[in-house]
């Protein structure tokens, strides 16, 4: 696998991890007991820390990318392992006139 492919897969895992981590640990102003600014949405976070989310997303993406690469090299889970419905039935593509 080329290093550019690994970098692209890492970036995909990073974005997925960042979006996954966004709702965890965030508290609204009402929950934190802080006074709101006039015109502020009720759901606006009081303690949003993007640096912490980026740091944790970086670690999580590195672990997931490492597992993906290890699976790529060792072949632990393949396409055949993910086929939950079995093989498709055989379909006869010949017209009816030619079957007899």
Primary descriptors:
100 residues; mainly alpha
- Domain count: the total is 1
Note the gap between the termini: 50 Å
Summarize the amount of helix as a percent range: 40-55%
Q: What's the gyration radius in Å?
A: 24 Å
What layout of secondary structure does this protein have?
Blueprint: H1 3-21, H2 29-32, H3 50-74, H4 96-99
Describe the fold and architecture.
With 100 residues, this protein is mainly alpha-helical. It has one domain. Helices cover 52% and strands 0% of the residues. The protein starts with a helix and ends with a helix. The mean pLDDT is 90.
In short:
By secondary structure, this protein is an all-alpha fold. The chain is built from four helices and no strands. The mean pLDDT is 90.
């Amino acid at each position: 696998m080329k290093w550019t492919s690994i970098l692209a897969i890492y970036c995909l895992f990073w974005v997925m991890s960042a979006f996954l981590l966004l709702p965890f640990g965030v508290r609204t102003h009402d929950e934190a007991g802080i006074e709101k600014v006039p015109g502020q949405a009720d759901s606006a976070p009081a303690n949003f820390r993007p640096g912490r989310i980026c740091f944790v997303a970086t670690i999580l993406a590195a672990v997931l990318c490492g597992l993906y690469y290890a699976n790529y090299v060792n072949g632990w889970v393949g396409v055949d392992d993910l086929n939950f419905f079995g093989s498709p039935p055989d379909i006869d593509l010949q017209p009816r006139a030619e079957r007899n």
